[in-house]
Amino acid sequence: MGMIYRRKKRDPTTGTLAEQGPYWMKYYVEGRPIQESTRTSDKDRAKRILKIKEGEIAAGLYRGPNIDRIRYEDLAALVRQDYELNKRKTGRRVSEYQNHLEPYFRKMRVSAITTERIKGYIVKRQGEGAANGTINRETGFLKRMFRMGFQQTPQLVARVPHIPQLKEYNIRSGFFEHEDFLALRGALPDYAQVAATLAYYSGMRMGEVCSLQWRQINWTEGKLFLQAQDTKTNTPRVLYLTGDLYRVLLAWKTRCDLKWPGCPWICHRGGIRLQSLKHSWRKACERVGLGGMVKDEKKKHLVWVGRIPHDFRRTAVRNMVRAGVPEKVAMSISGHKTRSVFDRYNIVNERDLEQAARSLSAYFERQTVTLTVTLAELRGESNGSVSRQPVDSSVEFMELARGIEPPTGGLQNRCSAN
Fold this sequence. Notes:
The chain is α+β, with helices and mostly antiparallel strands.
């Protein structure tokens, strides 16, 4: 059973004890006494606050006395701990997000982080030139912080504020035609050609490609096994090696056995594991006209505009769909887990649009019917002296559309026998 009281303080003049300040309440949680201020000098209101607190304890909704003292840093530490415990591969992104979030929300109480404050952060980042997609990733990290705090026992967050999402206009949609891929591969150095071929035919992420080892290939069955710890989604996959991909890997294996017999990596440069294709990629793209460095007026420095290695992933998904591979199978090959991302990669090019236009034109041609009836025959007149007039050139039996449509909404055909 709880109680309320006021703290007593000795008067320095008279030396007597007198009650001062707001009412405090004392209640018990699992036999442990908790003392907390009600922040009010009204005794009746203090009693109501105590009853509410005891009701939360009885219903299992007790959140603890320190919930209003939780700050931004406390929730950020929860997310960092989760990434460390689960050994997430995208842990470096946490530091990137916090570098932008922390200056704005530093030492701010969680109860003070409202939707309006979050909108203020969004406006600030837009003023700094950040893209909508970048801002969404950062606010998504903030939302994850709140959700993890809300799931704790006892809760560290009383409520999760609404965090608005911006419309993204910078979604990448580049892809390769087969002739573009062949031209680019020919311009790449030999060590990069292997990585490009694997990414183009399989749709693997470049991080997955660079982590492949020769022991993951079964040459007898023509299979490449991806281990769970090497994939972003922690899901093992199997890739069958056929055609051009098999020939490229076999030729590269033969060469590696002669020059670097002790190297376990498939993608390497002189026996050292390949980490990135950035420099060789850009040089090759510039050589075949698939990209170049352009000065950005906003950022005031050169930025890359052109094809990127991740375009191979989009290309592989699109090619598998066009080849008639079932979508479920294509997703298992490329490693996609959500349908929304899969649909976004299944993009079209100008050839697809041209084929759609031709198909639509052919449909309308099949629907065309030539009428040989005259207006007199349409009225029911059988006089042979009646001149034969084409129906489609007459305006006599046409009238303006009526109703809520504007006068220019169209014409209605009405044929009458009178």
